[in-house]
Specification:
Layout lengths: L2 E4 L8 H11 L2 E4 L6 H10 L5 E16 L13 E13 L7 E21 L5 E22 L5 E27 L3 E7 L3 E2 L2 E16 L2 E12 L3 E2 L9 E13 L1
């Protein structure tokens, strides 16, 4: 008798319908069942054009807001938010063999941040204190993120979260106090009593969107915000002031 054969390339969801038809026809039939493992799906997606690894460049601006609780034991600056450019490199890798929307992302960003703080206060009698603080740092920031794409295709919105560590290549802090007495005598004192912490660890949350340009090229636009533990302390851990940093950033990149 004739034999109906379901070939291996027939998709799995069609197998039950064809098998039922063959059964009702009264003819002999053979079903070759093909199941795809996670590794096979992963391999097929890579061969179809999904990028396993991505590299790219990015740049933008970072707005650094440092808040330090004043201490009666020593002068603490109160700087204004400072906007500075950042730029660097990034690397992305698909984490899941089945869900290619989840990526591990590592970045290396160069940042140079400058701060200025001015305050004026009254002392005993007719004394007036004027304080200027100048401080800055140059560093390398290493964010490590998990990125989740919300859709696939040529336009992909995403969210990411992770941590970032900023290491300082150079750092400087100078405090200048001007004391005015009886509106005639002015004395000036300079110190560097506050020191930098070894680095700053921040928590990071962001969102963005990727646009396919051509081939493997993609444009990446993102906004993010970081929360950190601050920068300065007076040399003794026990006297460390309460402080924190808030850093919104806007970045644009190209991956390939």
């Amino acid at each position: 008798p004739p034999r109906s054969t379901l070939f291996p390339y027939t998709t799995l969801f069609r197998s039950p319908a064809i098998s039922e038809y063959n059964k009702k026809s009264g003819q002999d039939y053979i079903v070759y069942k093909k199941e795809y493992s996670g590794e096979m799906i992963y391999g097929k997606s890579i061969r179809a054009g999904t990028k396993l690894n991505s590299y790219g460049i990015l740049g933008g601006v970072n707005n650094y807001l440092l808040t330090i609780k004043p201490s009666c034991n020593y002068y603490t600056p109160d700087p204004e938010p400072e906007l500075t450019p950042v730029f660097g490199l990034f690397y992305e890798r698909i984490l899941s063999r089945v869900n290619t929307r989840t990526l591990l992302r590592a970045e290396m960003l160069f940042i140079k941040q400058t701060f200025y703080s001015y305050s004026e206060s009254e002392g005993f009698g007719t004394q007036i204190y004027r304080d200027d603080a100048f401080f800055d740092f140059t560093g390398i920031r290493i964010p490590l993120l998990i990125s989740h794409s919300l859709s696939s295709g040529n336009i992909k919105p995403y969210i990411n979260e992770g941590i970032a560590l900023t290491g300082f290549l150079s750092k400087k802090y100078i405090h200048i106090r001007e004391t005015e007495i009886y509106s005639t005598e002015i004395t000036t004192r300079e110190d560097s009593d506050l020191k930098y912490l070894p680095g700053e660890l921040t928590l990071l949350l962001g969102t963005g969107i990727k646009f396919k340009i051509s081939g493997r090229l993609e444009a990446d636009i993102q906004g993010r915000i970081e929360l950190g533990h601050g920068l300065l302390y007076p040399g003794k851990e026990a006297d460390k002031p309460k402080q924190y940093s808030v850093q919104p950033a806007f970045l644009v990149g190209i991956s390939f």
